[in-house]
Design brief:
Distance between the termini: 41 Å
Radius of gyration: 18 Å
Number of helices: 10
Strand order of the largest sheet: 5-6-8-4-7
Order of helices and strands: EHHEEHHHHEHEEHEEHH
Largest sheet: 5 strands, mixed
Structural class: alpha+beta
Strand content: 15-25%
Shape: globular
Length: 215
């Protein structure tokens, strides 16, 4: 069964632009028909995330701290902390931890897809106001293929959009995740793992597994 980009995106919980990016990278196989991308529906199986109940906001923050090797900032009772420790063990033992991690930490931050001119994009990559993440973070050891991913704090977002002439786009080359509070540098590992897990690409999934095994 053939399906369109929007249908695939809806089924996988992705944005349409993210699916188009995966197609360009070759992670989702598609063919052009009458100026539209058509995807073989059987690929839904390959990209089906594991069904697992998402964490509450408090547990999400705590688990990211735990993955980062940081002191847990959220106030947890002993039972909640024990539960998260068990989840960490499950993650280490899972054959494809990126899919499991994605289901636990989904919708943890606002995402804005933007476009920047080549000149402004290079300036943005060096900006002190943003912290690279995903494939754009050096720890990932990957090339981001021209799609720059980073965090920006909520109180700096407006200034960054204006300074680097960023505009919302259906063909983005910038993905900003909005942090309610400024994040420390370098980016804590938990955030990097969470961001890499949002991609269904094999490179990102392999890197998540590699990094989690080292925890």
């Amino acid at each position: 069964m053939d399906i369109g980009v929007s249908e695939f995106a809806s089924a996988k919980g992705l944005s349409r632009s993210r699916v188009l990016q995966l197609i360009r990278k070759g992670d989702v196989k598609a063919r052009r028909v009458a100026n539209q991308w058509i995807i073989d529906g059987s690929q839904l199986i390959n990209y089906a995330p594991k069904v697992s109940r998402p964490f509450s906001p408090k547990m999400r923050r705590a688990f990211i701290d735990l993955l980062s090797g940081m002191e847990v900032s959220s106030k947890l009772d002993p039972t909640e902390f024990s539960r998260l420790r068990k989840k960490l063990v499950l993650l280490r033992e899972d054959e494809d931890p990126a899919l499991l991690l994605r289901s636990w930490l989904i919708n943890r931050a606002d995402r804005i897809e933007l476009n920047a001119s080549p000149k402004d994009l290079e300036r943005l990559r060096l900006a002190s106001e943003v912290i690279p993440s995903g494939a754009s973070n050096p720890v990932s050891g990957m090339s981001d293929g021209g799609m720059f991913e980073a965090y920006v704090s909520r109180n700096q977002l407006s200034g960054v959009l204006k300074k680097f002439l960023l505009v919302k786009s259906d063909n983005p080359n910038v993905l900003l995740r909005v942090a309610e509070k400024p994040l420390s540098r370098p980016l804590p590992l938990g955030y990097l793992l969470a961001d890499l897990s949002e991609s269904f690409g094999p490179r990102e999934r392999t890197k998540v597994k590699e990094l989690i095994k080292k925890l």
